[in-house]
Amino acid sequence: MKSLWPIFKREFLAYFSTPLAYVFIVIFLFAMGAFTFYIGHFYENGTADLSIFFSYHPWLYLFLVPAIAMRLWAEERRSGTMELLLTLPVPLWAAVGGKYLAAWAFTGVALFLTFPIWITVNYLGSPDNGVILASYVGSLLLAGGYLAIGACISALTNNQVIAFIVSVVICFLFTISGAPLVLDFFRGWAPLVLIEAVSSFSMLTHFMSITAGVIDLRDVVFFFSLIALFLAANVVIIDLKKIG
Amino acid sequence: MPFPSTSSTRLRPRAMPEPLIEIDGLTKKFGPITAVAGIDLTVAKGEVLGFLGPNGAGKSTTMKMITGYLAPTSGHVRVLGHDVENDSIGAQACIGYLPEGAPAYADMTPRQFLNFIAEVRRLPPEIAKLRIEAAVAKTELDSVLDQPIDTLSKGFKRRVGFAQAILHDPPVLIMDEPTDGLDPNQKHSVRALLRTMAPEKAIIISTHLLEEVDAVCTRAVIIDRGRIVADGTPAELVARSRHHNAVTLTLPPPQLEQAKTRIRSLIGVAATEDALRPDGLAALTAFPKNGSLLIEDISSLAVQEKWDVRELYAEAGRLDEVFRAITTHDADRAREARA
User: What kind of architecture, by CATH, is found in domain B19-238?
Assistant: First the structure.
């Protein structure tokens, strides 16, 4: 843990020493607002809850989170600092974990900055703040899931554009795997168990069950297992690149 | 009388200083290409080993394996007894490494960057402060400590990398082209720094600059196509040169023919070469047989014959000549790779 901290700290501060953080946060907040108010018709809806706001999160994250993740390893490799980082006396898991947690914390900051909408809805009515809190937790877990996938893909290539596109596609598949578009592909020939398994990999399903207001342990376990799986893959990929 | 050799008083070899780096059968293959083909090398405390070789000879790949960035296909590296593959953290803690191109986090300032390295290397804060001050003073970074690294000149960037490598005062230093991109003054100070650190450490530097080997290295290893093709002190390598102990004298062209004939008739002379120089003088070089010393014979001959000699000097040898003679050219390598 001791070796993870300096890497986390460096990475987290690095976001704010470049324009990246500010551009990302401004676009994130602007897009959240635009979707919620103009496309989601938040006011016209007339109910004091944030379900419309949260319903757009998976789709916004689908593009914004891979944009954060694409540089995680691709940039290190391109600039040569990867060689520096991996020859410091730091276990590989600490480097992977530190960078990942910094990126996650950064998306957490961006998410936190949406708090005015929470204030607004509390000013306009009396929403169920428990549901809102659960939804924020769910949203953070969802971002963490996307981020783990993106970090892993970023380790595979030193081309950030490729990292971005591949991450978006894989995140998309993990988002909609519960939707008819994917399930119809399996229906008719695959056993029911497989269809259920594929459908249970849907981040959207798990996210929506949390935003309904119940933090079910199964949903939390799902997200944490997904994150652990992709971080482990991230470690393995970097280790394999050493073998060359 | 031969020295008595009994079981109780066995002759010991000259006491060797402790080996800090042990490389054993190190091999690296990238698909069908063999970048490093079985290198054995031991580097002791006090040695500054200059790693020479043409581009693509495997210098950087070897350094990357010593520092644990690349895993060898076969073979082992031990640094102070730590196996780099099985105990990479233990080995890496003993190594200061300057990778090729001196990479550093461009968005940080040298101060932040060195603090980060000190933290990752777990130096206690009060020691870290002293070590950072020492490294900054040695690399003369104080004037740019608070400027982002990506705004620094190439020379300063290289020095940031150098400071990072020596920060924890490691027993082993691995530096890939430490003076590349530095101006002659900076080169001089980096070399002076390496010399002052040398007695306490085992240092490996790679370089293209043959004069650097003369300036700092106690030992030169030339590698070519992933193999060691020469290993010795710079003086030993230079002695392999055709110009080792060769004597050159310059004199007016009319006297050249006579001088040539007389010098060729000396016992120690194997051959001569001559050339007309741009300044109008003729230069005559005599190559010795078996490295014999010619300078005395030739100078007394010149006095005796009353040649109008302007310059007369003997050469130690030319490292670049040795280098060219024992390494292959790019074209040969490319041909071989195609075959």
Answer: 3-Layer(aba) Sandwich (3.40)
